Amino acid sequence: MKRFFRKTVALLSSAALMLGVVSLAACEDEVKTLGDAPYASLAEAVAATPDQSIAPITAEQAEELLKNPDRGLRMETYITLGSPLQSYPGDDENPFDRARRMIEKYRSDSPTVCQLYVYLSNYNGRDLDEAAFGQLKEMLELFRAADVKILLRFAYMAEKHKGASYRVIKGHLEQIADFMSRNSDLARESIYCWQLGLVGLWGEGHSDDKFIWFLQGRALLNTVLKLLDEDMYLQVRTMDIYHYVPLRYRDRVGMHDDYIIDDLNDKWAFLPADDRRYQAMTEKFRLTLNDGEMPWGGTNLGDTEDGRSLDAMDGKTILQRIAQNSMTTFSLEHNYREKEGAEYSMYRWRTEMTTASEMALIGVSVNPALIAAMGGTMSIYDVLRYHLGYQLMLSDYRVDRNVLSFSVTNYGFAAPLKMNYFGLVVEENGVRKEVEIAAYCKEALTTGETVRYRIRLPDDAVPVGVRMSNNRNSTDTVRFANATRYEGGVQYFA
């Protein structure tokens, strides 16, 4: 969000903290018994407290968790395609220089995701040309080289630029689909998730008289979702927009809440917590990718002169909002240190300490072993950056009569929904091999859940470790919250 809304947006919601159980019932083809074939596998949700048969991660190792892909605190930058080539429309800064500046500015915060606004303002009313696609390709390549994934949003409308008609948007989407097809490897390796964007100021869906949601909303969402690969998620800004998502696509459409403050019932949120529908929607969003950001530092409530300052918001309340909405990413660029020398809300949280028991009292999932390793306390800022998205820990390891069993617990705020593959690494007669764990279901590992895996081993197989990744051939692998060796994408059991 480039600035605040100046209009109240009608949104959905309901009351109360919701950390309900999403078990293996969310997964298709659930197996009830362990088969006899080599490497047959079984997964079951359990309520047991994880043991330390696989040592938990140490304080010295903890920052390695921040390198995990497709999660965490994120940056934000812009590119306005065409001529003049700019970052934000009307700004003089070169967009590639700005992107590099953001990467350097936030290096110490270890982000692996950046929200990229791609403004098509210079092409409102005409086709995108090769210059535009060359600029877009260069930006995707820049972030791929930096090992940073992109949260992608296209937009037209800014303070001095009008919105586009549906005809223009549809034509550009067809061109973008062709570009993504021709550059499929680059798109897959650089884009983490899409945001709908396209309509309204900053792509937030409001203040645009060129687009009529009642007549064109469903067609727009259908066009965008058909463009995306089946394993790519989309986010929308308001519940009003979500209503236009075709039913067949709703399992991969989450939300981005661009106005998170320390009032769970604020009317500009995606889901004010006092709305009767809040509980059902937060449960639904446990199985989608979701993003959030606070208002800019230096602003007041409601973007008014007499509203209360939002520069020192309560971090625990905001953690509740983030956890309740299963957020995978959250903005570093808003209300942190966007202005040189300023110390806004998130910056203050770096010295505001809490404990695992205090977080449990307000319904926020944290890893107690990690907090214990750090001396029993953790800053609000660290709770946020370590627990956004997934944080997975191995435990309960044993081998009994050729059956391997171990558990995975997710202490993060969201399931590892981009991790489509889970493999077991073994040695058979001195030869290392990797076998897919067929019982794995990413949707079962929602926040706070523990899943126990049982795998039948051949007589000559020795378990070595596990590897979780975007897909079998991907190098985007998960570092588990364990002290054992992590090498080549493999988390070793010992």
Automatic annotation (TrEMBL):
DUF4874 domain location: 68-240
InterPro entries, per the entry: DUF4832, DUF4874
Range of residues in the leader sequence: 1-25
DUF4832 domain residues: 252-460
Keywords: Signal
Domain of life: Bacteria
Protein name: DUF4874 domain-containing protein
Species whose genome carries this gene: Candidatus Stercoripulliclostridium merdipullorum
